[in-house]
Write a structure and sequence with these properties.
Blueprint (H helix, E strand, L loop, with lengths): L1 H16 L13 H21 L14 H10 L13 H13 L5
Helix pairs in contact: 2-4
Length: 106
């Protein structure tokens, strides 16, 4: 029993020693979600990682934060910040289409 526990502990330590690279591309099965994520990654996460790390967008939390994205980008028009890179018209359309798919838009 002790050997098994020691083996599991050593294996866990090895896994922790070699984390995944931080800029590993994320692939989703939904092309629209992937396109929306790439926009959030390039235009939003750049600042969020530095100034608001708890609001970094990832494929696993995008749907949960879709309403906040809609309000900040389309209603209040406060994101991306003026100091960041503005969204292109195509990026706005892509995000809006993805938000429509999430049933967020009125």
């Amino acid at each position: 029993m002790m050997k098994i526990l020691l083996f599991l502990f050593a294996g866990t330590c090895l896994l922790a020693a070699f984390p995944a690279p931080p800029n590993q591309p994320v692939v989703t099965t939904d092309p629209l979600k992937e396109a929306a994520y790439q926009i959030l990654e390039k235009k939003c996460n750049v600042c969020h990682r530095k100034k608001n790390p708890f609001m970094v967008f990832k494929p696993r939390n995008m749907e949960r934060r879709a309403e906040k994205i809609y309000r900040a980008v389309f209603v209040q028009q406060r994101m991306p910040k003026q100091t960041g890179t503005p969204l292109t018209e195509e990026e706005y359309r892509t995000l809006k289409t993805w938000l429509e798919q999430q049933n967020i838009l009125p």
